């Protein structure tokens, strides 16, 4: 199959386009014909990218990207819940080869039917970010109607979903973003928006029931003082070079997991118009290096996607190969 992959431990500039063996679904697995996937530069720093669960080096070639949208190609023995030809979206195992290829394998429990109202390139950028927001707000944060929630990094890939989901739940949403993104975040449903460069958030808000942090560092540490006495803080940012995290901040850290049931609910929200999806740009698979360079520039609304089979989804971008 055609794929983009790494032949050694290196950055995105070392990606190679070529043919590698197509995976075969093992018992309980599903083979997906990948139509689109999303680019996450941080994946190059993740432990599972180059290591097995036991900490041993993974064999090359290594295929990146673990969220995707596509079509069920075949079913391994005992795989249930989907049939050949179903349009699906979801995630696969961090320690396996990802979706920057024509095919990948995934567990049925990590998949859901693709939202009907969006393209594959739009569906592909949803799973990791939307599940992170869902699990942070509703599972770990136990957000309820009329509670006060503060969302840091509200214009980012995760934050933009978090604002919309919190609003959908009926919470009162305060969000921090740059001046250029205040109107954007307000349009997502935030009741109060704060330009974090012009105003220290702790000077204007207090007694938060929940804080959802997608920034980390000093922003995270300053957030503890504005929690209500029984409030919760969740962060998706681990240790950084900005400042050492306190133990309570390390305890507030969460990692996303694949959940097909939650993805099905998210797809229903998208199709109902309750959740908007943002894609920064779409590149062809052969343009993966350029896609990573675009993503690494930051200042984006949504993620950069790779389209594998449908050129109609590729952005009008003269830098696309």
What name is given to the CATH topology of the largest domain?
A: Quinone Oxidoreductase, Chain A, domain 1
Total number of domains: 2
**Approximately how much beta-strand content do the residues carry?**
15-25%
Average residue-wise pLDDT: 94
CATH superfamily name of the largest domain? Medium-chain alcohol dehydrogenases, catalytic domain
Q: Please summarize the sheet with the most strands.
A: 7 strands, mixed
Percent helix range: 10-25%
How many strands? Answer: 14
Coarse shape: globular
Query: Kindly, what is the distance between the CA atoms of the first and last residues, rounded to a whole number of angstroms?
Result: 20 Å
Total helical elements: 9
CATH architecture of the largest domain: Alpha-Beta Complex
Alpha carbon gyration radius = 20 Å
Would you tell me the structural class of the helices and strands?
Answer: alpha/beta
Report the top-level CATH class of the largest domain.
Answer: Alpha Beta
Element-by-element helix/strand order: EEEHEEEEHHEHEHEEHEHHEHE
Low-confidence stretches: none
């Amino acid at each position: 199959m055609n794929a983009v992959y790494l032949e050694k431990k290196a950055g995105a500039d070392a990606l190679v386009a070529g043919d590698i063996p197509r995976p075969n679904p093992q018992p309980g697995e599903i083979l997906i014909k990948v139509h689109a996937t999303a680019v996450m530069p941080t994946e190059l720093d993740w432990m599972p990218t180059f290591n097995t669960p036991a900490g041993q080096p993974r064999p090359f070639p290594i295929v990146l990207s673990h969220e995707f949208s596509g079509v069920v190609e075949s079913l391994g023995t005992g795989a249930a819940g989907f049939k050949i030809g179903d349009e699906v979206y979801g995630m696969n195992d961090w320690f396996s080869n990802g979706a920057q290829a024509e095919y990948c394998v995934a567990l049925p429990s990590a998949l859901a039917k693709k939202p009907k109202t969006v393209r594959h390139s739009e569906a592909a950028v949803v799973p990791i970010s939307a599940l992170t927001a869902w699990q942070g707000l509703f599972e770990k944060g136990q957000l309820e109607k009329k509670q006060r929630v503060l969302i840091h990094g509200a214009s980012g890939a995760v934050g933009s979903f978090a604002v919309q989901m919190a609003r959908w739940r009926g919470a009162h949403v305060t969000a921090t973003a740059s001046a250029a993104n205040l109107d954007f975040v307000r349009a997502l449903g935030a009741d109060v928006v704060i330009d974090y460069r012009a105003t220290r958030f702790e000077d204007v808000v207090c007694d938060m029931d929940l804080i959802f942090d997608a920034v980390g560092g000093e922003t995270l540490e300053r957030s503890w003082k504005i929690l209500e006495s029984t409030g919760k803080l969740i962060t998706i940012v681990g240790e950084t070079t900005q400042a050492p995290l306190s133990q309570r901040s390390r305890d507030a850290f969460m990692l996303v997991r694949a959940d097909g049931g939650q993805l099905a609910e998210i797809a229903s929200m998208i199709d109902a118009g309750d959740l908007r999806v943002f894609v920064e740009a779409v590149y062809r698979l052969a343009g993966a290096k350029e896609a990573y360079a675009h993503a690494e520039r930051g200042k984006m609304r949504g993620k950069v996607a790779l389209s594998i089979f449908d050129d109609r989804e590729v952005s009008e971008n003269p830098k696309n190969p």
